[in-house]
Design a protein that fits this description.
Elements: H1 23-26, H2 28-39, E1 44-45, E2 48-49, H3 56-73, E3 78-83, E4 88-110, E5 117-119, E6 127-132, E7 138-159, E8 162-173, E9 178-179, E10 182-186, H4 190-197, E11 222-224, E12 251-254, H5 258-264, H6 271-275, E13 285-288, E14 292-293, E15 300-304, E16 313-317, E17 319-326, E18 332-338, E19 346-351, E20 354-359, E21 362-363, H7 378-395
Parallel strand pairs: 3-10, 5-11, 12-20, 14-21
Antiparallel strand pairs: 1-2, 3-4, 4-7, 4-8, 5-7, 6-7, 8-9, 13-15, 15-18, 16-19, 17-18, 19-20
Helix pairs in contact: 2-3
């Protein structure tokens, strides 16, 4: 199974340059090919020449393959924390080589008194996370997988309305060897921080108006633990057999949410006109139903079509993935239950070198929504979403 969140971010993750240790391996590779070709034909017969395979050719070819493999295998692991620009951070590991356990420590600065919301690892049903957030300003994420992971792995996402000041991590491979990876931090811009400061959290009715929950369920840290998905249905966001992890950049993009379309809409604001804003057309994402009330139990289906041959990784923010399968046409189909009262549930897919965030069209039922705390356009959006959802239910 797959999990959790992300958004717009810098164009690429900062990756380390070639280390001096790899130079003696990479540099000979520039000269071996011509040398191999020169030795590939030899021997003279009479006045002419007959091409014969040099006995050294197989040895040199094996050496070339070994050098290419070594330069890849020596790529330094990197753990990156980067902002999505809206109060969230994605924790990504790159160049992993059969890692079964990791621990990431984050120090952050935030005016928000609420504990960080952390969503679980997106590496299949065999992976899980644990979170420690006992002290304000610090967060520790412990990742564990029963099957070793390699390459790029989306470890977790954390909702931190501020900036990350400190990052450290360690990795343990399947043999028990522990190493310290390089780290990289990408914080939101000043403009994004200003926008976050002026944005209130999604309004939800006071606790007294909601059903009682288990004692301690409201205490920090808030960790979204998704129900496991059968192994056969999990996207293999792990390693491809016979291939070693490689360093690469990742591009980021984000679809506009229906709430953002409501805020930007300058035309007629009748019920019919606003209802049409929920009818999004997208070549990758299809949500069914087009709008869902986030009562904490209702589920929606999201179909995702990817072009990469690699198995994707999924991250869900403010929701749980309760089902995952591959359709007859090769598209991935996720069943998602948005968090109770959510206005901002999102799904992010990492496929190949591209990461895309898709905001789900969800809104709290009217009884869970406090209009007095609503931000710009939120009351109108929630009212329209409830009207459409009830009309759809009545039409069944």
């Amino acid at each position: 199974m797959q999990t959790c969140q992300t958004v717009t971010s810098p164009a690429a993750l900062p990756l380390p340059e070639i280390k001096p240790l790899r130079q003696p391996i990479c540099l000979p590779g520039q000269f071996l090919p011509p040398f191999t070709l020169r030795l590939g034909c030899r021997a003279r017969t009479g006045q002419g020449r007959t091409a014969q395979a040099s006995p050294l050719l197989p040895v040199l070819l094996v050496l070339l393959v070994a050098l290419g493999w070594s330069s890849t295998a020596l790529a330094e692991p990197v753990v990156s924390v980067f902002s999505n620009g809206r109060g969230g951070f994605t924790v990504m590991a790159n160049n992993l080589n059969r890692v079964s356990e990791a621990e990431v420590s984050i120090g952050y600065q935030s005016d928000d008194q609420a504990p960080p919301r952390v969503s679980g690892a997106a590496s299949g049903a065999q992976a899980s996370i644990a979170v420690q957030a006992d002290n304000p300003g610090s967060l520790t994420i412990k990742f564990k997988s029963s099957k070793p992971v390699s390459g790029q792995v989306l470890l977790a996402t954390a909702q931190i309305r501020g900036t990350v000041k400190y990052l450290a991590a360690w990795l343990r491979n399947e043999k028990g060897t522990v190493e310290t990876p390089e780290v990289a931090i990408s914080n939101p811009t000043d403009e994004q921080l200003s926008a976050m400061a002026g944005r209130r959290p999604a309004p939800v009715a006071p606790a007294a108006a909601r059903p009682a929950v288990k004692a301690g369920a409201h205490l920090p840290p808030v960790v979204v633990q998704d129900p496991p998905v059968p192994e056969a249905l999990s996207a293999k966001a792990i390693e491809a057999p016979g291939r070693e992890p490689r360093s690469r950049s990742i591009s980021f993009s984000r679809r506009k949410s229906v709430l953002e379309l409501f805020r930007a809409h300058a035309g007629e604001r009748s019920a019919a006109a606003l209802g049409r804003l929920f009818q999004r057309s997208d070549d990758i994402f299809v949500q069914e139903p087009p709008v869902l009330l986030s009562d904490g139990s209702a589920a929606l289906r999201l179909t995702i079509r990817t072009s990469s041959e690699e198995s994707p990784q999924f991250a869900i923010f403010e929701g749980n993935c309760t089902g995952l399968k591959v359709g007859d046409d090769g598209a991935w189909i996720l069943e998602i239950v948005p968090a109770r009262g959510s206005l901002a549930a999102t799904v992010t897919v990492l496929s190949g070198g591209e990461m895309i965030e898709f905001p789900l069209a969800v809104a709290p039922p009217l009884e869970l929504f406090d209009e007095a705390l609503a931000g710009a356009g939120e009351a109108e959006y929630v009212a329209s979403a409830n009207r459409l959802a009830l009309a759809r239910h009545a039409a069944r």
